[in-house]
Amino acid sequence: MVTMVNSRMYHWQGNGCDFTRFDIAPKDRINIVKAFNDDVSIIAFTGSIWETQQDGRSYIELPANMILRDAGQVYSTTMRQVADTGAICREIRISPQRLAEMYAAADQELAPINFQSPVMEAPEVHEVFWLMHWLSEQNPCALEMATDTHRLLWRLSRRSGHPGLRRSRETSPQKIGRVADYIRAHFSDGVALQTLAEIAGCNPFVLLRQFRKKMGVTPHDYLAICRVNAARDLLKRGAPILETSFACGFSDQSHLTRCFKKHMGVTPGRFVTINRR
């Protein structure tokens, strides 16, 4: 692994949330004294160990932990150890207003997140968070971003929230079929998770669960397959790869390449070469 020479911070947005990646060089020992954020913070990191003070208590934060901080929560934190190659800290910030919107749309599917302790010992959630955060850097489509954000929030609420939630009733297979029909008809457009939920007559969390149960994939994966199939047909007819990317709803050529390789087993360029023989 390459050692980080200089610390750098990157920022981007997706699904109404703010994303940050902080690459920390070994020489930079971070010490934050009495700070707070205006937004809810969800944090995970690798390559370091931190000690945090919050509400008069001290916590040790390890690489497999999730860190949850409520908006306005005062804390202090110090990096106690860092790997020789450096550390990476990933954070998602959600405004209280945006979080309230997601909870309202969930129709009591989500338990309130417990912010009493900032440390959640949940390696499985850490793994989901890390992959989702990394994927958000790859310029995903809006549906993928919304799907990943809702999936993470569902896991966090189930892991840290209170039991005894009312489970929303399931939606009918016919309505899920109409969602699939809508995706096939609008694959080249921006497909929103909330729109699909409205078609199914349920909240986004129920839709994600029921769509996967019936179709075997998430709505985003289904959308990606539709786009790849359309791209395949255009490439067979000799359409340029770059033009095909935009015509089929991909954000750019690299987005097409990733999805095409995943679902077809070869890159678009290789597919074109094979079909010319």
From TrEMBL:
Q: Which SUPFAM superfamilies match?
A: Homeodomain-like
- Report if keyword Iron-sulfur is assigned: no
Which branch of life, at top level?
Bacteria
Ranges for domain HTH araC/xylS-type: 177-274
Keyword Repressor on entry: no
Task: Write one Gene Ontology MF term.
Answer: sequence-specific DNA binding
Q: Which PROSITE patterns match?
A: HTH_ARAC_FAMILY_1 (PS00041), HTH_ARAC_FAMILY_2 (PS01124)
Q: Which UniProt keywords apply?
A: DNA-binding, Transcription, Transcription regulation
What name goes with this protein? AraC family transcriptional regulator
Q: Name the source organism.
A: Azospirillum cavernae
